[in-house]
Amino acid sequence: MTDEELIGRMHEISLEYPAILNYLITRHKGLVKFIVSTLGGIMPSDVEDYEQEGMIGLYDSIEKYDHTKGAGFKTYASVVIRNRLLNVYASRNNLKNSAFRDYISTDPTDTDPEWKEKISIQSPDMTPEEIALFVELKEKFGTVMENSLTDAERTALLLKMNGVPVKEIAHCLNITEKAAEKAISRARKKIRNSI
């Protein structure tokens, strides 16, 4: 039986629901692993977490698949899984909480002797004033990302900042490459105008 037939049967005959659901999840586990492997910028230690998120996306796609919409199940599941993984990736790398994640004291008399090395920039020769300005700029950037950008602009920009090609961004957001380029361009313009 095809995936589409199995899902139709699963929703018609409730007694077979658990067995068919388990079969479909087992059958498409490789699809989840493949999609996770195509995403760039994931640390090896995070792969298992992303695979679990992908499995949740697979489960959602099985639950919500509607064969009358014209897409095959595997195509639909691929989009749902990829979008879920990209949302997780974007939220994990969202800059709105970066001030809390990367917090350091700007007071050089702090008890930590390596306080200058904790800032996430290149120059170790920064003065306390430069560090304070940098932290303020970083917080303002996070605020702009959170409040001024649409979800599509934020996701597209974060993915672009992490080295994902525009073609892949377009595929993940289910938009054309031109629309992805425009979303990135709009996001950059909004950030430039706000900072």
What does it look like?
By secondary structure, the protein is mostly helical. It folds into two domains: 3-92, RNA polymerase sigma factor, region 2, helix turn helix motif (Rna Polymerase Sigma Factor, Chain: A); 96-194, Arc Repressor Mutant, subunit A (Orthogonal Bundle). Helix content is 67%, strand content 0%. It has helices at 3-12, 17-27, 29-38, 47-64, 73-92, 98-101, 128-147, 151-161, 166-173, 177-194. The chain is elongated and about 65 Å long. The protein starts with a helix and ends with a helix. Mean pLDDT is 76; it is low at 95-122.
CATH class of the largest domain: Mainly Alpha
| Low-pLDDT windows of residues | 95-122
Largest sheet: none
Radius of gyration: 22 Å
Strand content: under 5%
The global form is elongated
DSSP helix fraction: 55-70%
Number of spatially distinct domains: 2
> Could you please say which CATH topology of the largest domain applies here?
Arc Repressor Mutant, subunit A
- Structural class, by secondary structure, is mainly alpha
**Discrete helix count:** 10
* Mean pLDDT metric: 76
Intertermini distance: 57 Å
Number of strands: 0
Give a short overview.
This protein is mostly helical and 195 residues long. 67% of the residues lie in helices and 0% in strands.
